Each structure stands twice: as C-alpha cells, then as structure tokens.
Amino acid sequence: MRLQDDRLVQDPCIALGQGEAPFQVDTSRRSQSRGVSLSLLVNSPSKLRSNMSRKVSRPRASFLTGQAAHNTGIKANNPLDSGGWDAFKAKEDNALPVWLKGAGYTTALIGKYQNRYGQQSPWGAWLAWAGSLLNISFKGTTIGNPRDWVPPGWDLWYAFTGTRARYYDYAVNENGAILSFGHRPSDYSTDVLKDRAVAFILGQAEKPNPFFLLIATKAVHAQGKRAVPAPQYVSAFEEVGLPVGPSFNEKDVSHKALKAAPIGGESKAQLTKAYRAELQSLQSVDDLVETVADALKRAGKLDDTVIIYTSDNGFLFGEHRLIGKSAAYEEAIKVPLVMSGPGIAKNETRAQLVNNLDVTATIVDLAGASPSMVLDGRSLAPLFADANAPWRSAILLQSPINRFQMPHNRFTGTRTATRKYVKYDSGFEELFDLAADPYELNNEAANPAYAGDLAPLRSLNDRLNTCAGASCWLP
C-alpha cells in the first residue's frame, strides 16, 4: 500500500509491540498534486488531521516527558537558552522509556535523540580535565565523555552522538560503544538505522516481553544547503517542480509579522533543488518503514504492534515568502501522523486537533504504563473507533526562545478548527479565519469584523500557555 505524504518532514517512526490487531492514521496540510509515497505494509489507514507542537529539541523533549515546553522548562535547542540535551539530561530519570520499562517493555532508540547529545559543555570538559589530574574517572557519565552516555530506561541505545546527526561521516553510540561511519554508500545513515531496527525486531521474535522501538532519522533535514539522498535516489524526481499554491511568494506581506523579501528566480531555482532533494531522501525513509513493517511480519509481531509515523516540524518552501520551519503558518506547524495497530477503524479520517503530547499519552495508555508526572496530552484511543468522541477545541502553538532571534520570530499561538491566533514577542498579533482563508493570506487582527473573536482567543492563549494536565485539554 502506498500513502501520499504531502509535507516533507523529519521522521520519527515508533513501534509499540503489544497485542490485538492492526490500525493506521495520517495527517496532512493540503494534498499536493505531486508528493512522495510512503509504503506501509499494514491494513488500510484511517486519517487524523493534526497540528503538532513543533521545533526540534523542544518537541522531542515534550514527547519524551509528555509535557508542554512551559512545563518542561526546555524552550530552545542550545544551553544558552535553556535547551537541548544540556537541559534535558536532568529529566532522563523520569521519562517515557523509564515508564515503559516499569510496565515490562523492552525499549530501544535508534537514530536522533536531543540536540547536542554527546557534546561536552565547557564546564564538563574542565571537570574531566580536573578529574584526570586527581585520577577520578567520569567514564559513562555526562561529565566525562558524554559521547558514551546511555540514558536510563533504554535496553538498546543506538544514537547519533558527538555532533549533529548526518547522512554520512557520523558517530553512533551503541550501548556505550562508539561506532564511526564514513562516506561509503553502505554508511548512508537512514539505511544504517533501518538495518539496526530490523535486527532489533527480529531479535524480539521469541521474546515474551512487549517492546517499544523509537526510530528517528536525519532525513529529510538539510545537511548544508539541502538533504542528501541515498545513491540509488540521486536522480529521482527530476521532473518534479516546486509546489506553488496561493501563498507561495505572497504578493503583499505588509500585514504579516514576518516581512520577508520576494523570492527571485535564482532563489526559486535553489528552492526547487532543495525540494527535490527532500523528496529523494524521503524515499529511503519510505524504504525504512516498509522494511520495518516487513520485519514485524517476519517476526510474527505485525498484528500485535502499534506503528506511529510522525514528525517534529513541517517546512515552508516559499509560502508567505518564507523558507524554513520557524513560523506559525500551517505548512510549518502541521505534520503527518500515521498509525497502524490494534483497535482502530480503517479507511476513516478524523478531524480533531491533536499534538505530539497526545502521542506520548497514547503510548502510555496502550502500554499500561504509569508515568510519575502529570501528562499534558490526552490518549487518542477514544478517537480510534469513534469519530464523534468528545475532544478538545483548541491547541497551543509555541516557538522556541532564542536570544538570537528577532521578536517577530518568537511567538505563542492558539489554533481552533476555524481560527488561528498568534502573538509575537514584539506585541504584533495575527488572526486568521482558516475556514474562509485556509492559505492565511489575510491577517484579520485589526479587522473590526473579527473583534468578537480576538478577545476570547487572547484569553484562551494566555490560559494554554500556563496549562498543566487536564487544563490543557480544553473542551
């Protein structure tokens, strides 16, 4: 079966081996006429429309803790802004893998972890140097050489370490041993992760314990100017052009917070190359998902396994004149959510608003785990069989805190089924009527006709930015 993927993303794939029979879910922005297909060897999918909280280390930290960024305190990707692995490592003792271990699961992470994982801080380097003078070893700790640090709760740890994840020329920490990869075709990281995932799954075939497997690829993230495809896909999609919708290279952005310059011919040509490169690199993710599903079938686990395919951010390819992911517009905040596993209605679409915190809550629920902290998300299980199950009416959007970003790049926002409100650090506001203006061409914040919407959305945004637990599940 081939599923069309309509927004290019970095792709975590999660397998939760349990017991019962197979389902599936997909989310997307708008269907593109030309996208890349994603193979899933599972039963016909259901679809769930989704807005996912986004932005690199913060959503990964939120996924592993089940809490929003304002509750984790992890608000960026680097230690200068209380972010990345430097901030997250203090929370590793009380996170998803630890809870799943407590429920009897064998756990595995393969691929990306947190930004800066395995990189030593200047303070850590000084302590390691002082320890060497005093004959004190910090091996296997986050102080000594953090490249060999294995966080608690993981039975198999196979994570990019020491630098940013890469397609080639990278290092992996396998349960404390550092493996180095070069630039041979066989070193292509998506394929390496695929092979390690297959080995793990087949190794569980005769094991009595259920398992949890998290796979997080480098693809389709850029390395340098663009993503790097595997050798067999370097010539794929050469005929595919850049998707050009009504918001591409938007004519008038004077009413927007981000007032980028128009995209010229050369920039569009480079953007087209980047788009094709992402399609090409995504083919290897397609191969990974298909191969993982096949391995589950060979191990006799497919019918008892929940598969979740999602991402931590979307991407703008020139919409609103923007390139990248640091924006509140739909292309940046909406990501795929594809699930397969027991108990979900097939061939159906769900329109409810969900976020990455709900994925954590769902895994905890299905696994029967007992988190030792309050979760800000809600299990998706009620939506599996009932399209009319009571659900939230709004979700929170949060950008990272980054002292080097301009105030118009830092925001909080609230999205409902038909409205989106965004407030920037500069005080600038945006309000979009998504029902009448799905491409977000008209900022209605100053429009008197929408004054009745603005005040309650401001209040709702303030509430969501301080919510915890059930107060994040607004009716």
Describe this protein with a few key phrases.
475 residues, alpha+beta, Alkaline Phosphatase, subunit A, 4-stranded antiparallel sheet, 25% helix, globular, disordered N terminus
CATH superfamily label: Alkaline Phosphatase, subunit A
Shape: globular
Unreliable stretches, pLDDT < 50, 5 or more residues?
A: 1-11, 18-44, 49-57
What share of the residues does DSSP label as strand, in percent? 15-25%
- Total of helices: 11
User: Percent range for helical residues?
Assistant: 25-40%
Topology pattern, helix = H, strand = E:
EEEEHHHHEHEEEHEHEEEHEEHHEEEEH
Q: Which value, in Å, is the CA radius of gyration?
A: 22 Å
Average pLDDT, rounded to a whole number, is 82
Describe the structure in your own words.
By secondary structure, this protein is of the alpha+beta class. It has a single domain (2-384), classed as Alkaline Phosphatase, subunit A (3-Layer(aba) Sandwich), CATH 3.40.720.10. 25% of the residues lie in helices and 17% in strands. The protein has 11 helices and 18 strands. It has helices at 57-65, 69-72, 84-88, 96-102, 122-133, 189-203, 265-298, 330-333, 356-367, 381-385, 451-464; strands spanning 2-5, 12-17, 36-39, 47-48, 106-111, 156-160, 170-174, 177-181, 211-216, 305-309, 316-317, 323-324, 338-340, 349-350, 394-398, 411-416, 419-424, 429-433. It is globular and about 65 Å long. The model is unreliable at 1-11, 18-44 and 49-57 (pLDDT under 50).
